Amino acid sequence: MNKIALIFTGGTIAMKVPSKQQGAVLGLSPREIVDTLHTLTEFDHLVPHSFADLPSPSMTPKHMVELKQVVDSYLERADFAGAVIVHGTDTLEETAFFLDVTAASPKPVVLTGAMKNASEIGYDGMTNLISSIRVVMEPHSVGKGVLVVMNYAINAACEVMKTHTLNLDTFKSLDFGPLGIIDDEDVIYFRSQTQRKDYRFKPQIRPNVYLIKCYAGLEGHLIDYLVNEGAEGLVLEALGRGNVPPDMMPAIRQACEKGLPVVIVSRSPGGRVLDTYGYPGGGKDLVRTGCVLGGSLSGPKARILLMIALGNHLNLEAIRQLY
Ligand code: ASP
C-alpha cells in the first residue's frame, strides 16, 4: 500500500506566462510535472490522474462532487496510501472543506497548489508537491481529515483560509495555527484539530444556496430577490460578532418564516459568532428570528456545508445542531 494518487485539477501550479499580454494561463501538463518528480527516485510511486484543467475560480460544487468520486475510487483501493490534489489556490479551501465534510476514509488527502506560476523565479509548485507527498506518506497523517499543504505548513481543511493575494505564506488557520510543518524530509505535527467534526455526509448538494456579505447600510433587497428566485438556503457574512444592519431584518424574518435556513457567520476572518448583542439586527434579534449561528466557519465554507446539509435532507433543527 504505497501508491499515491496525484489528481490534477489545474491552477497556477500548472500555469506559465507565454507573453505578458496573455498573462498566466494553463501550460504545464500533469505529465511534465510528474516526470520532474519521477527523476527523484523517492517519488516513483505516484499515479497521476488528470481530472480537469481549470483555474480554480472555474471550480464549481458540481466539480467537487465529481472530484470526490475520483478521490474515493483511489482511496478504496488497498494499494493506495492516499491522494494529493493539485488545485488553484483561490477556491482551494472550499474544495478541501467539501472533501473533508464528505470524507469516509481515514487515508490522508492533501490539497496543494502554487502562488507563483512555472514562468516565475521562485515557482513554489514543486516544493509544495513534494511536501504534500511527504505528508501523505507520513503514518501520523492518517485520520486527520483533509489537509492543505502550502509553504511548508500543514493546515486542516476545516480551519484554513487563503489570507493573502500574493504571499507564498497565504494559507493560515487564523484562530488555531497550523497542525504542523514539513521541515526538509520530516513531517512534524504540533497539535491535533480542535474544530473538525467527522460528518461523513454523502456528496450530495442542493445548488441554490447563496452567500451575502453585509456592510454598513445594507438593506434586504438582495435577500428578497434570492428568496423570490427560489433560494433554498442563505448564508449571511454578518458584521463582527454576528450582527446585521437593522434594515435587513424584515427580509431575514420573511426568509425564516418561509422555512429557509439562514446561517449567520462573520465577515471578520477570526473568531466565532455569538448572540451577544440585543439591539435591532444584533445576534439576539437574529437568533430570535430563527437564524442559525455558524460558529467560526467562513462564509464560503458555511455555504458549502449548507449545500451538503440540504443535499443530505437535514431539516432546520438538524441544520441548527450541525453548526
Ligand atoms: N487564480 C489561481 C487559481 O486559483 C491562483 C492559484 O492557483 O494560485 O487558479
Describe the protein in words.
The chain has 323 residues and is an alpha/beta fold. It has two domains: 3-189, 3-Layer(aba) Sandwich (Rossmann fold), CATH 3.40.50.1170; 209-322, Rossmann fold (3-Layer(aba) Sandwich). Helices cover 28% and strands 20% of the residues. It contains nine helices and 16 strands. The protein has helices spanning 30-38, 61-75, 92-101, 125-137, 221-228, 249-257, 283-289, 299-311, 316-322, and strands spanning 3-8, 15-16, 25-26, 46-50, 80-86, 109-112, 147-150, 153-156, 161-162, 171-172, 180-183, 186-189, 209-213, 233-238, 262-266, 292-293. The strands form four sheets. It has an eight-stranded mixed sheet with strand order 4-1-5-6-7-8-11-12, sandwiched between helices. It has a four-stranded parallel sheet with strand order 13-14-15-16, with helices on both faces. Strands 2-3 form a two-stranded antiparallel sheet. The chain binds aspartic acid. Aspartic acid is lined by residues 11-12, 55-56, 88-90, 113-115.
Give the helix/strand class.
alpha/beta
Named CATH architecture of the largest domain: 3-Layer(aba) Sandwich
Summed up, the helix count is 9
Rg on CA atoms, Å: 20 Å
* CATH fold title of the largest domain: Rossmann fold
* Low-pLDDT windows of residues: none
What is the CA–CA distance across the termini? 36 Å
Morphology:
elongated
Overall pLDDT metric: 96
CATH superfamily of the largest domain: L-asparaginase, N-terminal domain
CATH class of the largest domain: Alpha Beta
- Distinct compounds present: aspartic acid
Strand content: 15-25%
The helix/strand series, from N terminus to C terminus, equals EEEHEHEHEHEEEEEEEHEHEHEHH
Percent helix, as a range, is 25-40%
How many domain regions?
A: 2
